[in-house]
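Q: I'm building a small set of examples for a reading group on sequence design. Run inverse folding on the following structure and report the sequence directly after it, with nothing in between.
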């Protein structure tokens, strides 16, 4: 409804009723495509002179005379965007007449044009916004300002665009361009690769980060179909994930040869999803949905993150709520009845202030492994997850983000299969199951006044895993292995740091608190009718031998880092972390319960405590030879805290020492041929004291306890990104690590393992992807990923030789839609991801076989 305000000399408005009572008839036609977003409106409105409203007072008569002398206000009823070869054309069409000339200015990356004596009069909104109308333009916004002024804001991705403003009879035309010469004042010589990361808790170019880091952008994630941790590792040098036929029971993984075999203690790899730390390898096996970016940092990360990590960090960032409505959805179907549905929706609740985002996925499939004894699949899967975000920006200085998520999966048993010629067939009398449930909540508050930034992150995450598997992986009715793990982690992180604009001197200081409660119930054996054949006479049918434990961990830490540029091309960095860790085993018992209810306690501990603290320094130097080439070197102390075994056999295996390392690294980063070629190289050496070794149960391969040894790791990483021609992209990476024991004697057998390769530490990792996106919509991608020789035990008995997997994806993209066909492991390679000796049988877990499918995507 239009409102006409008439202010007379006596301050009385008596003519409003005559305007407000009129009917406004409008016919609206909307069209939207990936290249442009427009709304066309035809409106017929009676002219003011045609209205019958005679003056009834001197004040009203004076008001009408005053209005007749003021400039006319022109309505803008149509905004059109059209992509061009040099940028973008924006057309503003008035209802009648012409628009006044616009005054322009530049604010940051935005070109601002203010049009006087005009008002935006679109049918259903008082603001027009288009997100990413071209690759170089982030936003185009047209909105009303006070005093009858319309503002056009054109925000560039890297710098402010330029625009030629032409006044035509049909309206105002903005010819927007991002020519190299026009944006030279906004783009520094150091702008090279166009990938912005937050690995060092501030936005900066990937090539400016003195860390060995792999970044998967939103476009790369979508193009490669990345949804799991395994998918991420296959595109990252020196990062290996060993998933069992896609099973979510537990994933072993390693960065630079440092594995997470000690799942009872803190992982060597720090996992963060939207700033929330994840723990335990069985609690990070879910699918990922609605990803914006993934950053994989290699080497110790202790002076920038709340939770410290020794091997590196996987920083997963999901998409933020938006100020304009958007929808993204995919539906896929493939081999083994694999159904995959994903969707996200986002938009404003209150324009420019309060925004929401909802995302989720559901998936199910049949099993890869046939249990011929039960005539059923062993490892079928179903479940999904969801996430909700609420972003509030009450002012330019404040940002408050509430984030909540859940995961709920029910899978078949975690398959340990006999290593033979039929890896996907088995005969056992129990299928088993794996149930995973988790939920997380976080509150991120950011305050950014003129001279600093303050960030508070409060989080809680609950995770639970309930599993049952066949005890002997055969048709012998020996019983089942069960356990129920649950973990609750509460964290508080506070960071204060220099403003984003700081250049020569940057600083960060932070504090961190973590409280973790880890419980295990019914962890052990439930004996069946034939259990005595394997375990002796004490394994009475119907009896159980189970463990129960309650373990608490508390962490306090302070950390900080400063960077200084004594000269323009040289940056010196120093950081320090102090951390205190307290572990307490409230109770542990290992009890044999007979069918008549009588109990015998074999092992019991109560109120066992272990405390420790450490200082972790980091030093780095970075030198830029020219705008395209930068070199760096770092020395950093790494650390994984000691702890208490939750499956101790005796007091000698009750505790284990902290693991300490000193990481030396040098690197070179370059962006060449006008940013068409990027090459990054890093080399490292990392000696480790008191490396934590996991001891397995010789009967069931169940992890029992942790002991300590010494080790050393040396290696390199090389990554390449190239765009030889428009639409053609090549991404390649290779990692090498020599990870070996330097001092380790098996405490049971006395065997010396000095010189043996660390388990789950492949000597080589490599990846190559070639992708082409044609202007007419054709999309094609071929890639390979490979691993060198890998051992699965300290004795180097169980080994997977080097292998390579090939994937392919072909599609057609039209407007906001895409249709694709894909194949993973297309040559159906059989390879082990784990192996162990159990009850006299060599058993293992295999990778996912060949899968093929189709996918449909829609973006609105």
């Amino acid at each position: 409804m239009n409102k006409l305000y008439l202010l007379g000399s006596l301050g009385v408005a008596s003519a409003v009723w005559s305007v407000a009572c009129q009917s406004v008839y409008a016919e609206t036609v909307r069209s939207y495509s990936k290249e442009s977003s427009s709304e066309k409106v035809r409106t017929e409105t009676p002219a003011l002179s045609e209205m019958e409203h005679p003056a009834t007072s001197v004040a009203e008569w004076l008001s009408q005379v005053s209005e007749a002398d003021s400039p006319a206000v022109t309505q803008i009823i149509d905004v059109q965007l059209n992509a061009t070869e040099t940028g973008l054309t924006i057309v503003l069409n008035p209802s009648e007449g012409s628009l006044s000339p616009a005054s322009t200015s530049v604010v940051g990356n935005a070109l601002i044009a203010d049009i006087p004596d005009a008002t935006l009069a679109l049918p259903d909104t008082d603001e027009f916004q288009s997100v990413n109308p071209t690759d170089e333009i982030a936003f185009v916004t047209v909105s009303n300002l006070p005093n009858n002024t319309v503002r056009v804001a054109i925000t560039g991705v890297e710098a402010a665009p330029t625009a030629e403003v032409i006044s035509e009879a049909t309206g105002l035309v903005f010819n927007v361009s991002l020519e190299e010469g026009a944006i030279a004042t906004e783009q520094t010589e150091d702008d090279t690769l166009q990938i912005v990361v937050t690995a060092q808790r501030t936005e900066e170019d990937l090539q400016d980060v003195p860390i060995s880091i792999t970044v998967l952008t939103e476009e790369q994630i979508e193009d490669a179909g990345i949804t799991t941790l395994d998918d991420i590792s296959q595109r990252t040098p020196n990062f290996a994930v060993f998933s069992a036929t896609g099973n979510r029971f537990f994933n072993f993984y390693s960065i630079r040869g440092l594995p997470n075999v000690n799942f009872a203690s803190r992982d060597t790899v720090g996992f963060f999803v939207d700033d929330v730390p994840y723990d335990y390898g069985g609690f990070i096996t879910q699918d990922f949905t609605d990803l914006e970016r993934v950053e994989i940092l290699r080497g110790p990360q202790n002076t920038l993150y709340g939770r410290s990590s020794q091997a590196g960090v996987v920083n997963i960032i999901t998409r933020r709520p938006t100020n304009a409505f958007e929808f993204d959805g995919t539906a896929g179907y493939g081999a083994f009845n694999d159904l995959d549905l994903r969707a996200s929706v986002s938009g404003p609740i209150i324009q420019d202030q309060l925004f929401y985002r909802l995302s989720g996925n559901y998936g199910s499939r049949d099993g890869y492994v046939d249990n011929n004894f039960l005539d059923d699949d062993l490892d079928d899967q179903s479940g999904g997850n969801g996430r909700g975000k609420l972003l509030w920006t009450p002012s330019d200085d404040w940002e408050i983000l509430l984030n909540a998520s859940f995961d709920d999966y029910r899978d078949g048993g975690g398959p340990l299969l006999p290593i033979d010629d039929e890896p996907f067939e088995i005969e056992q009398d129990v299928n088993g199951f794996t149930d995973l449930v988790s939920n997380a909540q976080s509150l991120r508050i950011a305050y950014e006044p003129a001279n600093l930034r303050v960030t508070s992150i409060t989080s809680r995450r609950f995770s639970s895993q309930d599993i049952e598997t066949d005890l002997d992986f055969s048709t012998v009715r020996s019983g089942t292995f069960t356990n129920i793990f649950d973990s609750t982690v509460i964290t508080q992180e506070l960071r204060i740091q220099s403003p984003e604009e700081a250049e020569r001197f940057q600083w960060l200081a932070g504090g961190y608190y973590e409280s973790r409660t880890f419980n295990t119930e019914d962890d052990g054996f439930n004996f069946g009718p034939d259990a005595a054949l394997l375990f002796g006479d004490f394994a009475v049918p119907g009896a159980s031998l189970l463990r129960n434990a309650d373990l608490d961990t508390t962490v306090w830490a302070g950390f900080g880092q400063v960077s200084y540029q004594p000269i323009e091309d040289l940056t010196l960095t120093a950081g320090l972390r102090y951390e205190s860790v307290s572990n307490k085993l409230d109770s542990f018992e290992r009890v044999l319960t007979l069918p008549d209810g009588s109990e015998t306690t074999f092992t019991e501990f109560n109120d066992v405590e272990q405390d420790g603290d450490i200082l972790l320094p980091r030093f780095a130097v970075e030198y830029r030879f020219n705008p395209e080439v930068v070199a760096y070197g770092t020395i950093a102390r790494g650390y994984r805290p000691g702890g208490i075994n939750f499956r101790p056999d005796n007091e000698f295996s009750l505790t284990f020492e902290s693991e300490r390392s000193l990481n030396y690294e040098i690197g070179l980063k370059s962006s060449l041929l006008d940013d068409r070629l990027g090459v990054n190289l890093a080399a490292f050496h990392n000696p480790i004291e008191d490396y934590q070794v996991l001891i397995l149960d010789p009967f069931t391969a169940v992890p029992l306890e942790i002991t300590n040894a010494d080790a050393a790791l040396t290696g390199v990483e090389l990554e390449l990104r190239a765009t030889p021609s428009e639409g053609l992209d090549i991404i390649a990476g290779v990692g090498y690590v020599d990870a070996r024991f330097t001092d380790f004697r098996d405490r049971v057998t006395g065997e010396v393992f000095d010189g043996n390769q660390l388990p789950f530490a492949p000597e080589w990792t490599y990846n190559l992807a070639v992708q082409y996106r044609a202007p007419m919509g054709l999309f094609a991608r071929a890639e390979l990923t490979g691993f060198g020789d890998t051992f699965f035990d300290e004795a180097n008995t169980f080994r997977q030789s080097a292998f390579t997997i090939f994937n392919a994806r072909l599609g057609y993209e039209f407007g906001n839609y895409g249709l694709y066909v894909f194949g993973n492991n297309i040559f159906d390679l059989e390879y082990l991801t784990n192996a162990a000796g159990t009850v006299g049988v060599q058993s293992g877990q295999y990778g996912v076989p060949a899968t093929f499918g189709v996918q449909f995507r829609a973006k609105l």
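The longest strand covers residues 599-626.
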